[in-house]
Amino acid sequence: METATPVRRKAPRPRADALRNRERIVTAAREMFTEFGPDVPLDEIARRAGVGNATVYRNFPDRDALVREVVCSVMDRTAEAAEQALAETGDAFGALERFVHVAADERVSALCPMVATTFDRYHPDLEAARERLEGIIDALMDRAKVAGQLRTDVGVGDVMVVVAQLSRPPAGTGCEMADRFVHRHLQLLLDGMRAPAPSTLPGSAVTMEDLRQS
């Protein structure tokens, strides 16, 4: 008697409306985490997203999962903007500038502290998004240095410190008035990174590993 081989069934693809609901939740959460911090009630996020509480919990079993998804989505969008800038422009420093301003608009500085305080910073999804982002920034900076446009004594960590410190106030501070100065001050700092450098920076170029250990 022969035993029939079980037929493997493909996992059903999520319905389009389910994908839209998930994206609406992530978008609403990003806005509210930036405005109020990571402790905003999930019920309020559901209300802003226009979905029921059950839909939020069906997609994200707990707050950590939602925060992680928001941070990963921000890093992914920022990496995509950097990749696009790298592919589209022949101006290496211009591509770096474009990335920095997009990172500011994504409110990276408001979300980064959540990585350290809200959930496991070594989660595989988060590490993958981080590695992708750091890799493309490295590529942007290397191209600008080879072109003689970017001073050689700055590192990826220097750029991320600039973005984090000047892009937006910390989440929940309500300092929207600072937004009008963001891109002006970022450009001032970017101009200070241009080569040839008029001065020698103290210390050494900051790496992302330096930031993680600080």
TrEMBL record:
Membrane-spanning regions, if any?
A: none
User: Which keywords annotate this record?
Assistant: DNA-binding, Transcription, Transcription regulation
Report what the protein is called.
Answer: TetR/AcrR family transcriptional regulator
Native organism is Streptomyces plumbiresistens
Q: Which residues form the HTH tetR-type domain?
A: 19-78
* DNA-binding residue intervals: 41-60
